Amino acid sequence: xxxxxxxxxxxxxxxxxxxxxxxxxxxxxxxxxxxxxxxxxxxxxxxxxxxxxxxxxxxxxxxxxxxxxxxxxxxxxxxxxxxxxxxxxxxxxxxxxxxxxxxxxxxxxxxxxxxxxxxxxxxxxxxxxxxxxxxxxxxxxxxxxxxxxxxxxxxxxxxxxxxxxxxxxxxxxxxxxxxxxxxxxxxxxxxxxxxxxxxxxxxxxxxxxxxxxxxxxxxxxxxxxxxxxxxxxxxxxxxxxxxxxxxxxxxxxxxxxxxxxxxxxxxxxxxxxxxxxxxxxxxxxxxxxxxxxxxxxxxxxxxxxxxxxxxxxxxxxxxxxxxxxxxxxxxxxxxxxxxxxxxxxxxxxxxxxxxxxxxxxxxxxxxxxxxxxxxxxxxxxxxxxxxxxxxxxxxxxxxxxxxxxxxxxxxxxxxxxxxxxxxxxxxxxxxxxxxxxxxxxxxxxxxxxxxxxxxxxxxxxxxxxxxxxxxxxxxxxxxxxxxxxxxxxxxxxxxxxxxxxxxxxxxxxxxxxxxxxxxxxxxxxxxxxxxxxxxxxxxx
Amino acid sequence: xxxxxxxxxxxxxxxxxxxxxxxxxxxxxxxxxxxxxxxxxxxxxxxxxxxxxxxxxxxxxxxxxxxxxxxxxxxxxxxxxxxxxxxxxxxxxxxxxxxxxxxxxxxxxxxxxxxxxxxxxxxxxxxxxxxxxxxxxxxxxxxxxxxxxxxxxxxxxxxxxxxxxxxxxxxxxxxxxxxxxxxxxxxxxxxxxxxxxxxxxxxxxxxxxxxxxxxxxxxxxxxxxxxxxxxxxxxxxxxxxxxxxxxxxxxxxxxxxxxxxxxxxxxxxxxxxxxxxxxxxxxxxxxxxxxxxxxxxxxxxxxxxxxxxxxxxxxxxxxxxxxxxxxxxxxxxxxxxxxxxxxxxxxxxxxxxxxxxxxxxxxxxxxxxxxxxxxxxxxxxxxxxxxxxxxxxxxxxxxxxxxxxxxxxxxxxxxxxxxxxxxxxxxxxxxxxxxxxxxxxxxxxxxxxxxxxxxxxxxxxxxxxxxxxxxxxxxxxxxxxxxxxxxxxxxxxxxxxxxxxxxxxxxxxxxxxxxxxxxxxxxxxxxxxxxxxxxxxxxx
Lengths: 540, 540
What we know:
2 copies of one chain form a homodimer.
Chain A: E1 6-9, H1 25-38, E2 42-46, H2 52-62, E3 70-76, H3 88-95, E4 100-106, H4 109-114, H5 120-136, E5 140-146, H6 148-154, H7 156-168, E6 173-178, H8 185-196, E7 203-207, H9 214-223, E8 228-231, H10 245-255, H11 263-266, H12 269-279, E9 297-298, H13 301-309, E10 327-328, H14 336-345, H15 354-370, H16 378-388, E11 397-408, E12 414-423, E13 426-434, H17 437-449, E14 460-468, E15 479-487, E16 490-498, H18 501-519, H19 531-538
Parallel strand pairs in A: 1-2, 1-8, 2-3, 3-4, 4-5, 5-6, 6-7, 7-8, 9-10
Antiparallel strand pairs in A: 11-12, 12-13, 14-15, 15-16
């Protein structure tokens, strides 16, 4: 029988404290539903009373039946010299209608006297009174001991006295917070182990990543006896973030043998991580442990053939278990077998003969020599493979484009693009402004194509990178443009190379749209649109 | 007496295995100089023999005297059934002219028989023979035991036999590699501790971050007796990256009391991290532990006043110790002395009063908020300081420019620029083609200015980088352009920011020329050129 570790997610509360993170009530509902589906035990939705948005979330989520998770409200103990029953903050927790409440309180003597400006005894009273009040109202109650590790180092007996007061008042959980994120794993292990021995109440851990060791701190606490981990998806949160549950869960479950979620739920980990990133409008680092796009990417000839023969020689876990995929990086596509493995991974079946395969490999090498880089642009690679095998549809071709930029001394620069495309032998001529030349070009292309292929409205550009390939030429040098596009949480990358940054951008833009049309299974416009509709578009 | 831990940086070799990371020889030289300055003990420059770029690096770096670091070449043991002295790979190490070599070899029995396809005995011979050969050639020799932790778990006695063979052959260091990045801190601690007891040779640790615990693994290994940590700046590297030295060093030095670099060098940590990110054209996450822009950012009223009263109540270390800054939402008054120090460093003497200094600081903060970054563009900073103190000459001003780009289906794109400048109240109107819009703009500007300021012929653009600042907006997002210019071996960098890449490039181009004119001590054209000469130029 595996030992259960409970997952407490605070993406919707502590996570939104991260710089640049902002979630609407609708966003929070969407994320909560996915967290529930993944098997999270407690979903902390916000701090009722601190702002209207959080209260609106609790009102909305009450109406939605969840499969498993307990929606939890966050708050603090009552104020000094105020009875818990009279405290606005605790009243707001009750009013939010949740089943569980998590309240933080002081356990570091310095904070009691210097920040709270009250006595050590009064702080103990506030903790006990607040916990007892919430329990009496029928809530599952978690007491979060703020700055516990610093407090324990400064005055262990006082820190423990605070926890015991919460226990005696009936707390269901006591959670040890490393609020500064300054503790190291060996300290967390020792202090949790010492604390577990003093209490009957199950303990949780709430680490922050200021020292870059939050995941290790969570694991150390569990190994020392903690039964709950509080963190966020993708480690978002104030300063350096909360502990990343996306890394904690597979370590606990696949490596240390604890039980967090079902095997099937764990296979949704990568999707969950990418979904939350998408909703929060943040770029997920390719190198994120476990779920990153590069996490199981392999380079190097001998290495690749060994991985394909026996993945465990080079991989610490099987990517399938967490819903990620093994990737073979194309720059090493020396052999036919690698190319075939790549096509299987990209889920394209071209049944190529030996001659054709060799042709394609030669073409990849030529393009890489010119400066294309397909390891970061697998959508462009897919298009090249489709093209080489004659299976690429002709959704549109370029007749010409012109871009005009003008700047007068004190005014901002303006950018205009004119694009002439051919769609099913008809000429479509559009013009658009933009915030810069590439944006203008993108706008003009969309204007030309959206009526033929309305699904284009569902894709957007997510990232744009420019790299100068040969530095000695500076502005006359070759540049590589990488464009990342997204639609419904899925991402793909395309590449263009030219001495002209605009021409390279055009290539990557056109590839990005073509790849999306291929993935969506779009037919060429001639087969779709009626003659009348097309006439309308031509004069658009 | 604090115990010394040696730092081994492999940013230039393992780091460049990271997806999307590509460094030119010039980039590698720049980074190596900064690593040396920071106090890194070993700088791994590449794998000579594996590619011409790495060999070119070793040839260049040989000519440059370093203060402290040993430049190290990476390679592998000799091949099966080949004597070390006959092995091309080891010959290439010697030919690279380095003082130190790091060679990897197998220590996991499964890899010996399945990947290398040789016998366990032959593998031991290869390790011993290769180490002995390098020692005999006078090199400091590090033996890197690949997959050591997996190997130890599978067959501890064989894994140790391999290490002992390296020790007996005279290895100066034995480095335990967690090649898959799959080990957890408690395993690393136990295995390193067991291994230390078996050997006389000092041990190093080489962790990867696939489990999100690489920093903790490095700390655990040092606590168990390892004396060297191998990692990269910002944790770049294959898959999920190598261990991030930027997080390891302050943990070791400020929290665990080990000695890595001097206190003054440690204050350069944030700068080093940002510098490498800039050169590698990667976006540093704001939440990166220790050095991130948000790492010491404080929100919230009570919190902020508490931080200002007593930072240690809310911060795990003092940000000044690593060259980062506390950020609060109130305007920071600090920085006057910093600005004066900076001016001294830039060798500009402006004798500013207190009022003026405060004005300049406000202006820098505003511009940084807009996305300018002066750490990588000190020439632009210098111009701003000169301008703020009224000491910037008016060599030229922009009236307007226009850029036209045209592409027809099968032809290459063409770029033309028209520039109207005002030089000493005369209007100069020129046009030029270029290899792309920025090159055309550069050509047209030079055409306009060269007759007034002939020294411009001696400067050229050396590097051009574009960074998207707000990734969410993609092609409509703000971009930062960094231009590096050079003249007679001296280099300077300038910056421009706009939503339009061309406008940002213009700013950086204009700054680049202005800075050069200032450095050359050029007077404004009106004071130089005769009336006749100017007439000739206007009609140019």
